[in-house]
Amino acid sequence: MEHIIKPILIIVGVLLVLLTLAAGLIWVERRLLGLWQDRYGPNRVGPLGLMQVLADMIKIFTKEDWIPPFADKWVFVLAPAIIMVAVLLSFAVIPFAPEIFVVNLNVGLLFVLAMSSLSVYSIALAGWSSENKYSLIGGLRAAAQMVSYEVFMGLSLMGVVMLAGSFNLRDIVEAQKDIWFCIPQLPGFLIFFIAGLAETRRIPFDLPEAENELVAGFHTEYSGMKFGMFFVGEYLGIILISALTVVLFFGGWLGPVLPPVLWFFVKTFFFICMFILVRATFPRLRYDQLMAFGWKVMLPVSLLNLVVVGTVILAGGF
Amino acid sequence: MINSYLPVLVILLVSAFIGLAIIVLSTVLARRNPTPVKLMPYECGMDPIGGARRRFSVRFFVMGMLFIVFDIELIFLFPWTTVYDKLHFFGFVEMLVFVLILLVGLVYVWKKGALEWE
After folding, report:
1. Could you list the residue ranges that cross the membrane (chain A) (predicted)?
2. Is the pLDDT of residue A1 over 70?
3. What is the count of residue pairs from A and B with beta carbons less than 8 Å apart?
4. pLDDT in tens, B79-105
């Protein structure tokens, strides 16, 4: 009986923690942005403004939930759910600690890449089904941007797979006992992090929802909780990319003294803060710069990284 | 083997349930007060000019094609990485040839101007 109950408990626990974190991150992001931009951020509702999240949730649920009469109804309604499901699914293979994981797949890394790339459907369908010019342009931009950066994201992870000799995320963490992969794979880490920013459509790459040219991009026509689900999806995406960075480049749960889960969360939280710091620091790129940067800089560099890792492994370096 | 994918199925069902529950809940809880102006597509406060089903830049299509080409080449590299330490020098040279072909393709696309957004 126990071997059935334990996985179910873990699944429910992981989903609950993730959704709570995604909601809490909105508060964390607003507070940190306030800190870095020399203002307060939300600090009125409850201690430190923590209840702001709850207040926002109640508000967003009771907001007018309108489905445009001109939109493609079913696609319009389902699109926000797709992004949530796709990102939550990718968490299935993330090992949070030696004992805490939903499933241990031998193709773990491929599974994550496959599932996280499904979220492009959500954005493209949302933009297309809204029948609004801004939404259409936003959705198209998002689709082109996300598929482009997916190529480099996959390529940048090859070095890690070569060093660990496995796609299994647990094996990859175990392989970092001696040295975290961020040191031999520094270029891979940088490419992955930049590609991660583009995949989650965060600020230097948030062209799909550039508010000063596209109103709100692909979710212009969305309101109420459907709009909120895109945000939950975005924050889940940030958590996913941060967790993956930790697993692949920063030794996952490995660390002295503290329990493994705590190490995992501390490291992941650090990278989430990095995401927010990037948002507080950088201006938005132009779309042609974004695409040119991807195909003309990132792709050659990640191929070069692959060749260099191959050479060093062949020479017996690692 | 199939058994190990069971938790994936469970997490898919649970997260799909959560997603649908949120949609249903928001439909039940939300108020509705439509007015003719509210029912128009949003376009910066004025009446929309034309529909959204119009032509868009062919560049997006080119990007889609490039993605398919390069992603499939990527898929060929994935299995190679896992057996790299068993292939030794042979595997390395093979990879070099493969990456070279990829680079030639990239240079061709570049020179043809498919990467420019004007």
Report:
1. 7-28, 74-97, 109-128, 149-167, 179-198, 235-255, 261-282, 294-315
2. no
3. 200
4. 888 777 777 778 788 888 888 888 888
pLDDT value at residue A242: 92
**Closest to A161 (Cβ–Cβ): which among B42, B82, B102?**
B82
Single pTM value for the model:
0.89
Q: What is the 3-state secondary structure (H, E, C) of chain A?
A: CHHHHHHHHHHHHHHHHHHHHHHHHHHHHHHHHHHHCCCCCCCCCCHHHCCHHHHHHHHHHHCCCCCCCCCCHHHHHHHHHHHHHHHHHHHHHCCCCCCCCCCCCCCHHHHHHHHHHHHHHHHHHHHHHCCCHHHHHHHHHHHHHHHHHHHHHHHHHHHHHHHHCCCCHHHHHHCCCCCCCCCCCHHHHHHHHHHHHHHCCCHHHCHHHCHHHHCCHHHCCCCHHHHHHHHHHHHHHHHHHHHHHHHHHCCCCCCCCCCHHHHHHHHHHHHHHHHHHHHHHCCCCCHHHHHHHHHHHHHHHHHHHHHHHHHHHHCCCC
pLDDT, tens digit (0-9, with 9 covering 90-100), for A72-101? 888 888 888 888 888 888 888 888 888 777
Average model confidence (pLDDT) across chain A: 84
Give B 17-36 residues with CB within 8 A of chain A.
18-20, 22-23, 25-27, 29-34
Domain boundaries, chain B: 2-112
Q: B90 touching A, CB under 8 A?
A: no
Q: What is the mean pLDDT of residues A149-168?
A: 85
CATH topology of domain B2-112: Methane Monooxygenase Hydroxylase; Chain G, domain 1 (1.20.58)
